[in-house]
């Protein structure tokens, strides 16, 4: 049960609500005209809610993407600062030994570049994943809108 995806749960809940509302309308003891009016009202309500959910999901996706980008940028900055400090300390310790200091500086610089690139790649992937999920959710909502019409 812990493997249920939140997106799938929300879609299932939305579809279940629509099916339940439709079933209740069809089983209600009303005339055809009243039933059609009720169906029209429920369709309008469902459309408004879907639009609201779509907008909310898109906003949340953008918010998560910007948070991920900001955090990864902060991590990259911290790693860069710390590696520069390590390089400076290595220079101090090495003092007159040029070859060892140069090697250490190159290693620290390479490590900094690798870590910075990994953090940026990770941030980009998180951002793309969130945007992709939001786009998928929008497509499903649009499909549900078409199905309701």
TrEMBL record:
Membrane in keyword set: yes
Region (Disordered) location: 114-149
Keywords, alphabetical: Membrane, Transmembrane, Transmembrane helix
Record carries keyword Transmembrane helix: yes
Database matches in Pfam families: YtxH (PF12732)
Membrane spanning stretches: 9-28
InterPro entries recorded: Desiccation-related_membrane, YtxH
Compositionally biased intervals (Basic and acidic residues): 132-149
Source superkingdom: Bacteria
Protein's name in the database: Gas vesicle protein
């Amino acid at each position: 049960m812990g493997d249920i995806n939140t997106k799938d749960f929300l879609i299932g809940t939305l579809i279940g609500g629509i099916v339940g509302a439709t079933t209740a309308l069809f089983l209600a003891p009303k005339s055809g005209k009243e039933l059609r009016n009720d169906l029209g009202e429920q369709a309008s309500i469902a459309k408004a809610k879907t639009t609201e959910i779509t907008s909310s999901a898109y906003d949340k996706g953008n918010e998560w993407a910007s948070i991920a980008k900001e955090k990864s940028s902060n991590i990259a900055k911290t790693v860069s600062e710390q590696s520069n400090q390590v390089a400076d300390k290595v220079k101090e310790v090495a003092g007159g030994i040029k070859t060892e200091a140069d090697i250490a500086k190159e290693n620290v610089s390479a490590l900094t570049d690798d870590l910075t690139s990994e953090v940026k790649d990770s941030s980009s992937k998180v951002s793309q994943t969130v945007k992709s999920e939001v786009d998928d959710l929008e497509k499903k909502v649009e499909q549900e809108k078409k199905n309701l019409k």
